[in-house]
Amino acid sequence: MEESPINNAISDIYSALSGNSLVEASMLAEEVLGDIFRQWQKHKGDNEACELVAATCAYVAVMTAMQRQQEAYAACMTAFAYTVPYKVDPAGLLSLSLMTWNILEQTLNATQPADSTAAREHVAAITSAIGSLMYKYYYATGNDNPDDPALSDAYQALRLITGLVDINPSLADTKSTISDLLRHSEAIGLIQ
To answer: Which of these, 70, 136, 178, 190, has the minimum number of CB atoms within 10 Å of its CB?
Structure first.
C-alpha cells in the first residue's frame, strides 16, 4: 500500500488487532470506515473504491476477531455493492471474497443445517456467487502478482466451494452476481 492517511490508519488497525487490542482496533476501524463513507458521499471513483475495500477488510478482520460475524458479513456485502461499478484492485476483492467465504463457512458451521429446501437453495446460491467472484479475482490477482499470499488460501477455499456447488468460471457480469448474492443473503437473514 502506498503512503496515505487512510493506508496509515488501516495499518494502525491491523497493528492494534495483532496486539490483541480489540477495543482500540474496533474504534479505529469504525472511525476509518466512517471517514471513507463521508469521502464517498463527496466523491466516488476507483481510488475511493479501493480504499473502501481495504478499510472494509480491516473492519471485517476486527469484527470477526470480536465474534461479530453478522456485522462483518454485512460490511462485506456493502463493500461489494458500493464498489461494483468501479475498477478495484483484484487483490483487495480477492481478500474481500475470502473474508466473506470464511464468515459464511463459520456461520454455517455454528448453526443447525437448513431444514427447508428453499433455505438450502439460498445457501447454495450464496456459495456459488462467492465462489464465482473469488475465482475471477483469484485469476486476476495471480496475473498481477503471482506471489500474493492470499492466492494459497483462495485456492483452498475454491477447492472446497467447487466440491459443494457449481461456480461460473467465466464470470463476466459481476453486478448481476453481486445482486444475486445480496438477494439470497437477505432471504435467509444474513443481512437486513
So the answer is: 70
- DSSP alpha helix (H) spans, the chain: 5-18, 22-42, 46-65, 69-83, 90-110, 117-144, 150-164, 174-187
Q: Which of 51, 47, 106 is nearest to 79 (CA)?
A: 51
Residue pLDDT, tens place only, 72-86: 999 999 999 999 999
Q: Mark residue 67 as left, alpha or beta (left: phi above 0; alpha: psi -120 to 50; beta: remaining).
A: left
CA-to-CA separations, 112 to 25, 107, 109, 115, in angstroms, rounded: 31, 10, 8, 8
| Whole-number Å distance between alpha carbons of 37 and 60 | 15
CA distance 71 to 185: 13
**Hey, what's the cell of 24?**
482500540
State which amino acid sits at residue 179. S
Q: Which amino acid is at 143?
A: N
Contact 138, 131 (CB under 8 A): no
> Mind listing the domains of the chain with CATH numbers?
5-187 (1.25.40)
Q: For residues 71 and 63, is the Cβ–Cβ distance under 8 A?
A: yes
Largest CA distance in the chain: 50
How far does Cα 112 stand from its chain's mean position?
24
